[in-house]
């Protein structure tokens, strides 16, 4: 079983990030949480985390929002596909969206980098379920 | 007396009949031509004197060296006219040569010839008559007058006698006489066509008077008549067809221009005048492509025509092509052109070109292009709208809901009941807002099509009823369904349409009685017309037109829950099936929703 090292929240909405941090802690998960406010920042955070962790057994859990300024979720996925080989750590990626359009879900889940898609906000049950995959 | 054999040999070489005779008019020798003339052997001929055969021989001997007319009777009783010439030998009057210098045919052969002619004349499929110089009949063949007695009676008579005998109008005889006189006067044949109406048929006879002159004197006139009714009938059809064709060519909505193999214009119809501004007189004989096309296109077409004539059919002339035509004032305009090569009966090739002015069509096409572009922009806007409703508007609502939940959860102890009620209101409003926005997004997405499928409407109503089974059971609703058709449409949306209309009927039922719904369908030529009838509360007249507007609600939330989305969805679903939706309702009695689904959805 993989070891969970860091949770990276990528979302431009301050309230949402705050809420998710709150829900993560309510779920009893004490993994360190990092926050990025758009896709570009997300990529940079991911690269620096990879550098500092530098362990192929460690996992970075990413919750990615789709609708963001500067670089949106789709842009992040595109960029991540390019730099993926340079990342030593495990990156498990979930897309989170407030979108109620079924087209968005279909598009996100068809991306091979995406493990799953969840509507916002994350629920405690979902989080506990995801957490159970790791040490 | 002995005759030198030299004489015999000499006369044998003469081509005309020749006899050696003595003063007693005995025949001493006959050359081969002479024997041919008699048809007898020398010994037979020798039994008689030469005067027996040629009665005028004595006068011929007297006028030695001059041709003399005589008759000739051969041994078989045939007679013919000949000319004889006598020449004595060496001045010896006891011995001379008799030549036949001219020989007419035998009377017998004339009679045979006449018989032969009569057979021909009697059987020839034409009227033949021979007139003397006074226009009296000398001969009529059976085709001319069928009855033999009449025919015999006619000889020596004329057309006036015939008209009187047959009690006919004399004008026919007068006309014939006038023509006869003209023939006599001009000494040339005259041809004309007689027209009769017999047994309801038009009969045409082509007649001819042909004068025969002998020694400059009118000998007789041959009348000749052939029934040309069939030819004339065909000719009339041809003339009629030509008239019709001309009418068609002149009233056609296309410009029709004919030109010869040299590209010279030979025909130019009124539409060509209208399209190109030149009238027929101005362009006939001119080079067609110089007149109607721009220089460059004209040259190309000249080459196509040349290629065609030379047998290189690289270009299909009679295919419709869109190019630019040129008006009299040099202004270009769009045309559709096709050229039909025509093989004339004389083997020459000519061409007929059909041209349509497509200016207005081109304008319309341009309009459609512009409209399509506008529509495309609208669609992009709509997609944007869908994105906003489905995403941007959701996020703040989620935050509202999440934090009001958190507030109640984490700070419940520190809040009094009124504060909790306020938070409740915030939460409920957010939930309602979310439902509205969701409805709006779904409404916008209805334009987004999945595939058109064949739909069994009976099965679909069954499925919808199953989905709604709980509420149907709880409300005691009865749904009566006629036999519904298979239609073509967007399955998901048709299903939503039925579901919305059925659940609406149940939702707006009267409290005191059970809901009854009747679903039926009528087939029209181009569409299916569905009706869904209920016995519910009905809709007041003044609201009937508003029910299909999105977010329009006629009732207070506390009475009938809803967001005013269902019927707006229904209208949009019917719209994308090229149909119409309407409602007829009586307040307090019930409503009937009627919608159509086109049979021809693209």
Automatic annotation (TrEMBL), chain A:
Biological processes per GO annotation: phosphorelay signal transduction system
Domain Response regulatory intervals: 6-135
Pfam families referenced in this protein's UniProt entry, alphabetically: Response_reg
Keywords from the UniProt entry: Phosphoprotein
Positions of post-translational 4-aspartylphosphate modification: 65
UniProt keyword Heme, yes or no: no
Protein name as it appears in the record: Response regulator
Organism domain of life: Bacteria
PROSITE patterns in the cross-refs: RESPONSE_REGULATORY (PS50110)
TrEMBL record, chain B:
One function term, GO molecular function aspect: phosphorelay sensor kinase activity
Entry EC no(s): 2.7.13.3
GO biological process terms on file: regulation of DNA-templated transcription
SUPFAM superfamilies documented for this protein: ATPase domain of HSP90 chaperone/DNA topoisomerase II/histidine kinase, Homodimeric domain of signal transducing histidine kinase, PYP-like sensor domain (PAS domain)
Swiss-Prot/TrEMBL catalytic activity: ATP + protein L-histidine = ADP + protein N-phospho-L-histidine
Sequence ranges assigned to domain PAS in this UniProt record: 241-312
Keywords carried by this UniProt record: Kinase, Phosphoprotein, Transferase
Major enzyme class: transferase
Record domain Histidine kinase: where: 388-601
NCBIfam families listed in its UniProt record: sensory_box (TIGR00229)
Cited PANTHER family: PAC DOMAIN-CONTAINING PROTEIN, PHYTOCHROME-LIKE PROTEIN CPH1
Protein name stated in the entry: histidine kinase
The organism of origin for this protein: Flavobacterium muglaense
């Amino acid at each position: 079983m993989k070891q969970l090292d860091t949770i990276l929240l990528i979302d431009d909405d301050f309230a949402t990030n705050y809420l998710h941090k709150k829900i993560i802690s309510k779920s009893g998960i004490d993994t360190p949480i990092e926050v990025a406010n758009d896709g570009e920042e997300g990529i940079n955070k991911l690269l620096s985390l990879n550098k500092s962790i530098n362990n192929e057994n460690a996992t970075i859990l990413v919750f990615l929002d789709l609708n963001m300024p500067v670089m949106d979720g789709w842009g992040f996925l595109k960029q991540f596909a390019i730099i993926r080989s340079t990342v030593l750590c495990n990156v498990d990626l979930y897309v989170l969206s407030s979108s109620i359009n079924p087209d968005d879900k279909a598009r996100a889940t068809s991306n091979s980098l995406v493990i799953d898609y969840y509507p916002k906000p994350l629920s405690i049950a979902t989080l506990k379920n995801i957490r159970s995959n790791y040490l | 007396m002995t005759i030198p054999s030299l004489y015999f040999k000499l006369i044998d070489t003469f081509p005309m009949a020749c006899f050696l005779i003595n003063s007693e008019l005995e025949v001493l020798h006959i050359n081969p031509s002479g024997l041919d003339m008699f048809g007898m052997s020398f010994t037979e001929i020798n039994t008689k004197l030469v005067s027996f055969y040629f009665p005028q021989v004595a006068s011929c001997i007297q006028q030695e060296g001059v041709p003399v007319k005589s008759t000739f009777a051969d041994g078989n009783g045939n007679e013919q006219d000949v000319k004889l010439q006598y020449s004595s030998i060496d001045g010896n009057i006891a011995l001379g040569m008799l030549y036949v210098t001219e020989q007419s045919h035998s009377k017998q052969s004339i009679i045979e010839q006449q018989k032969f002619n009569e057979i021909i004349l009697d059987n020839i499929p034409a009227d033949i008559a021979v007139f003397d110089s006074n226009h009296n009949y000398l001969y009529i063949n059976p085709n001319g007058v069928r009855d033999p007695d009449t025919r015999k009676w006619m000889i020596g008579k004329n057309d006036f006698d015939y008209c009187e005998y047959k009690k006919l109008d004399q004008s026919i005889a007068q006309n014939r006489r006038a023509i006869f006189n003209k023939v006599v006067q001009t000494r040339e044949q005259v041809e004309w066509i007689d027209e009769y109406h017999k047994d309801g048929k038009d009969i045409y006879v082509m007649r001819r008077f042909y004068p025969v002159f002998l020694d400059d004197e009118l000998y007789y006139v041959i009348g000749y008549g052939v029934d040309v009714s069939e030819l004339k009938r065909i000719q009339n059809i041809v003339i009629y067809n030509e008239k019709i064709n001309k009418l068609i060519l002149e009233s056609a909505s296309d410009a029709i221009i004919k030109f010869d193999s040299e590209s010279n214009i030979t025909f130019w119809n009124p539409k060509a005048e209208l399209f190109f501004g030149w009238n027929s007189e101005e362009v006939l004989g001119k080079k067609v492509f110089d007149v109607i096309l721009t220089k460059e296109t004209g040259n190309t077409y000249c080459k196509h025509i040349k290629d065609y004539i030379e047998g290189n059919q690289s270009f299909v002339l009679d295919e419709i092509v869109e190019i630019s035509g040129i008006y009299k004032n040099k202004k270009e305009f769009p045309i559709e052109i096709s050229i039909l090569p025509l093989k004339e009966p004389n083997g020459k090739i000519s061409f007929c070109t059909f041209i349509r002015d497509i200016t207005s069509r081109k304008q319309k096409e341009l309009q459609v292009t512009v409209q399509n572009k506008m529509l495309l922009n609208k669609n992009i806007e709509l997609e944007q709208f869908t994105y906003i409703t489905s995403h941007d508007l959701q996020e703040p609502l989620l935050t509202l809901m999440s934090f009001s939940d958190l507030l109640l959860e984490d700070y419940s102890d520190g809040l009094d009941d009124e504060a909790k009620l306020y938070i409740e209101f915030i939460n409920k409003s957010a939930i309602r807002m979310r439902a509205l926005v969701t409805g709006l997004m779904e409404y916008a997405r209805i334009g987004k099509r999945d595939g058109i499928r064949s739909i069994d409407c009976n099965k679909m109503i069954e499925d919808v009823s199953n989905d709604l089974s709980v509420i149907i059971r709880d409300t005691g609703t009865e749904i009566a369904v006629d036999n519904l058709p298979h239609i073509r449409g967007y399955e998901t949306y048709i299903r939503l349409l039925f579901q919305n209309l059925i659940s609406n009927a149940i939702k707006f039922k009267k409290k005191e009685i059970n809901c009854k719904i009747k679903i039926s369908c009528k087939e029209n030529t181009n569409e299916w017309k569905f009706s869904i009838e209920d016995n519910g509360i009905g809709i007041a007249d003044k609201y009937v037109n508003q029910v299909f507007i999105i977010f329009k609600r006629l009732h207070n939330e506390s009475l009938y829950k809803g967001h005013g989305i269902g019927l707006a969805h229904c209208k949009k679903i019917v719209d994308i099936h090229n149909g119409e939706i309407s409602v007829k309702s009586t307040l307090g009695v019930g409503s009937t929703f009627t919608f159509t689904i086109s049979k021809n959805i693209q």
